[in-house]
Amino acid sequence: MAAAAAGAEPGSGCGGGAEEPVVSLAEVLAENEELEKEARAVLGGSDHERCSYSQGAVKRQALYACSTCTPPGGEPAGICLACSYECHGTHRLFELYTKRNFRCDCGNSKFKNLQCKLLPEKGKVNSGNKYNDNFYGLYCTCKRPYPDPEDEHLGAVPPESGDFHEMVCQACMNHCHFLWAYASQLAVPPLTKVNSLEDEGIVLKAEGNEEQKKEIKTESGVEHQETKEEKQMEQFNEPSTSSGSACSEVVTKSEEPVCKLKELQSKQFLKKDTATFWPSNWRSKLCTCEDCLKMYSELEVQFLTDECDTVLAYENKGTSDQETERRDPLMDTLNSMDRVQQVELICEYNDLKTELTDYLRRFADEGTVVKREDIQHFFEEFQSRKRRRTNRMQYYCS
Predict the structure, then answer these.
(1) Given its phi and psi angles, is residue 396 left (phi above 0), alpha (psi -120 to 50 degrees) or beta?
(2) The pLDDT value given to residue 258
């Protein structure tokens, strides 16, 4: 079954005019469903009606920056989803996707000529908020447009397989330097000597004290070392029990006596000035010994051990919440009517649904194209039949 592409005009005359572009109706519906699903995932975890300011620093929410109110050169500011609709609907906005621990700035001292319509009473500033070049429509390191249509900001080409769920930029990799040791086992693809030595700018590193290195090299010979490395690979590659839909609590203490990070750092690993890509379960494999938890705290990245912090968990929550709360427009309309109007509307709706389904099924069975004039013809006939039914209607005293 196919339908005329939106906005396309049929060819005229027989002089070889361009054929009317067509697209499968199934493709249109599938694309529309995919767009709705993506929107629910990105925005579903955020409230589109109420400003998030009263919630304080929200763990993760969709954010926007308004170039109209806070242009480059001024103070950066971020606004929540609801304020982007209600207070900045006609402004030029930068979509920031989601950010952590942020409190809505809309209408505070950074906005000279605007008061928040949803929550006018707000503090002058949100001192806990963190800002970067994203709020001016730029990436932090390369200063390319944000978002970048060519993805040249990454410093690395995303894996062709697409088998990754999170990306860590080069700036954050340098800040969280310990991740390079994990990248040799967990990144997609793993940063190993086999697939990366031909690249430029690589530094081979082996961290840890000499006793650790000596133990690995000489304890039981080379064979023992290889066996130990194989077991470690099995440990890192075993399936994770976590999922994006059911989050576990933030890990506070590890039951394992051995530090995974120190074991990895005792071997050679690669360090590059590039972004890295990670699978969905990589956070669950980070060490949570006392020393590592202290390091996460000092680097202000405690969220790495919280599986509910991931973008996947946020998107799953948004999709779930939207499916639960999404209201049916037909039911909303019915609830605003009296009993007689409800019955009439339901009858009209069922008639339209049945007749349109039967009409379109003929095109599907014949494999022909549904054109604009076909749809117009259907509704003209439908209205004509409706008028004939109405004119023949007889009224009886009840």
Answers:
(1) beta
(2) 85
Q: How far apart are CA 36 and CA 31, in angstroms?
A: 9
Q: Which of 36-45, 123-132, 277-286, 358-367 has the lowest mean pLDDT?
A: 36-45
Read off the tokens for 145: 């447009």
pTM for the full model? 0.62
Q: Is the dihedral of CA 119, 125, 129, 133 positive or negative?
A: positive
Q: Residue 147: is the preceding peptide bond cis (ω within 30°)?
A: yes
Q: Which of 198, 182, 3 is nearest to 168 (CA)?
A: 182
Residue 99: half-sphere exposure toward Cβ, Cα within 13 Å? 22
3-state secondary structure the chain: CEEECCCCCCCCCCCCCCCCCEEEHHHHHHHHHHHHHHHHHHHCCCCCCCCHHHHCCEEEEEEEEECCCCCCCCCCCCEEHHHHHHCCCCCCEEEEEEEEEECCCCCCCCCCCCCCCCCCCCCCCCCCCCCCHHHHCECCCCCCECCCCCCHHHCCCCCCCCCCCEEECHHHHHHCCCHHHHHHHHCCCCCCHHHHCCCCCCEEECCCCHHHHHHHHHCCHHHHHHHHHHHHHHHHHCCCCCCCCCCCCCCCCCCCCCCHHHHHHCCCEEECCCCEEECCCHHHHCCCCHHHHHHHHHCCCHHHHCHHHCHHHHHHHHHHHHHHHCCCHHHHHHHCCCHHHHHHHHHHHHHHHHHHHHHHHHHHHHCCEECHHHHHHHHHHHHHHHHHHHHHCCCCCC
Query: 221-237 and 210-218 are packed helices; what angle lies between their axes, rounded to 10 degrees?
Result: 110
pLDDT at position 259 over 80: yes
Name beta bridge partners: 205: 269
Asked if residues 100 and 309 have their Cβ atoms less than 8 Å apart, the reply is yes
Both tokens of 156, joined, read 């690395």
Mean pLDDT estimate for the chain: 76
Q: Are 100 and 71 in contact (CB under 8 A)?
A: no
CA atoms within 13 A on the CB side of 79: 34
For residues 259, 265, 271, 276, the Cα torsion angle rounded to the nearest 10 degrees is: -20
- One-letter amino acid at 24 equals S
Gyration radius (Cα) of the chain, Å: 29
Cα dihedral sign for 172, 176, 177, 181? negative
Q: In whole angstroms, how far apart are CA 94 and each of 98, 99, 153, 165, 314?
A: 12, 13, 17, 23, 20
